[in-house]
Each structure stands twice: as C-alpha cells, then as structure tokens.
Amino acid sequence: RQVAEQQRALEEHARSLEKAVQERTRELIAANAAKDEFLSMASHELKTPLSSLKGMTQLLRRKLERAGSSDVIRLVSMENSIRRMELLVNDLLNISFIEMGMFVLHKQPTDINELCRRLVDEYIVGTNPPPVVEVDLPAEKIEMAIDVDRFGQVIINLLSNARKYSSAPIRLSVRVEDEQCIISVSDDGVGIPPEVLPHIFERFYRVPGIEVQRGSSIGLGLGLYISNQIVERHGGRIDVQSTPGKGSVFSVVLPLKVASPVEDSTQVSQP
Ligand code: ADP
Fold this sequence. Notes:
Elements: H1 2-67, H2 72-99, E1 104-106, E2 108-111, H3 112-125, E3 133-136, E4 143-146, H4 148-164, E5 170-177, E6 180-187, H5 223-233, E7 237-243, E8 247-255, E9 267-269
Parallel strand pairs: 3-5
Antiparallel strand pairs: 1-9, 2-4, 5-6, 6-8, 7-8
The protein binds adenosine-5'-diphosphate.
C-alpha cells in the first residue's frame, strides 16, 4: 500500500509539474508576441520622425551649400548619423517582420551584374568618406529572379561590414560555378576568430572586443542574421572564409536553377 501511495503522490507531482510547464509556456509565448509587437511598433514609430529629420537636414544642407557656408560639413555629419540610425531602425523592423512571419519576397527577373554595379555605386556615393571598392564582374549576363530590394540589402550589408572591419579597399566579385551564382565581398581587415565563426549569423551576436573603423556604427549584431534569412529564402546560403589579422570573404551562393525566372518569378510569401 505504501508503494501505491508513493506512486499516486509521484503521479500527482508529475501532473502539477506538467500544468506548471504548460502555464509557463503560454506565458512565454504571450511575452514573445508582446515583444515582437513592441519591436514592430517602436521601429515603425521611429521611422517617421527619422525621415522628416532626414528631409529637413537635406533641405538645410542644400541651402547652406548655395550660400557657400562652411557649416555644410556639420550637416553632412548629421546626415551620416541619421543614415546610420535609419539602418539600425530598418534592422529592427526587419527582425520583427521575420519573427512575426511577415517577411515577403517580391521576386523579379534581375540582371545580377547590373544590380551589383548599381549597388556599389550607390554605396560609394552614400558613404562618407567614400570607400574604395574593386568590382570584378563576369562578361556573361546572369539573370535571376530575386527580390531586388531585399537582395540589395544583403550586398550593402556585406559591403558595409567589410568597410567597418577593414581600412583597405574592399572587393566585390561575381562568378558562376557549378550551376551557382557566387557573389563575394572580401576585405583585408581584422578577420574573425575560427571559434566564433559559427555564431556570427546568430541574432544580436557581435564578436567581443572588435573595433569598427571610424565613421562606422557599432551595429546591433543583426545584419548577418537578416542577410542570411534573406538569402536562405532565395534558396541560397552565405559562406564565410576568414583568417584573423588577414581578412574575410563572405560569399552569397545562389543556385541558378532555383532562382531562375522561368521557374520562380512570382511573388513568394514566407511562412
Ligand atoms: P554588426 O551590426 O555588429 O556588424 P552583423 O550581424 O553584420 O552585425 O555581424 C556580426 C558580427 O560579425 C560583427 O559584430 C563582427 O564582429 C563580425 N563581422 C561581420 N562581418 C565582418 C567582417 N567583414 N570582418 C570581421 N568581422 C566581421
């Protein structure tokens, strides 16, 4: 009888534990949803004042330029700060979209060489001081169905990381190999220690103790996570080769077949 009683007590204990776990899970799910909602609302709310601030600064800069004022330099640095803030807010907005399963791709047939050339030009013009980017594109035309804005975000993120962690010229190259299109961004910067390499695509991960170049923002450790999500949703992956003290190569690898416009040029909603 004693054994039976002990068994009953154990079963009772197990039931109450199960109930507590279920309750805690419900609480965590609710807290997570509230966090996502907050993140999304906060980043939306931050976006509006930021764009009006951006507009006003541009206007003021043009006025000062016309007047030949030396204060223009201050406005330029203000614009840079606003641009960095905008990138951070965009990252937060993206992350909340990913978390809430609202990440949507609008794919369209795109000339990859043309896109890369345009992105590099835009990146150089929009960065102060303008970085040196060497571009190596193949002679052949590569057309793939991709979401131009999202994909552009990936390339710009890799370029700005390369600049953040290196003072030398950055290289962007495109090549086709084994039915894959490979877009590589390389730098001769600080590199990444092998033991932390598996973590760099995690949300909010930053390699401890790494300094960024002057004029770059520290970042939230979201860029590579978001880039990886975007590339994976295009059916590809991002490979990294890095040697501490020597530099890094980030390669976006896209299968030509999966991304071909014939097979997949429609709008793709992600779960
Ligand atoms: P962050 O906003 O901090 O740059 P990312 O997600 O883009 O976030 O990158 C995560 C971390 O990976 C960075 O904090 C940095 O430590 C490391 N990293 C990314 N790109 C490079 C690079 N080109 N060279 C050296 N370290 C890099």
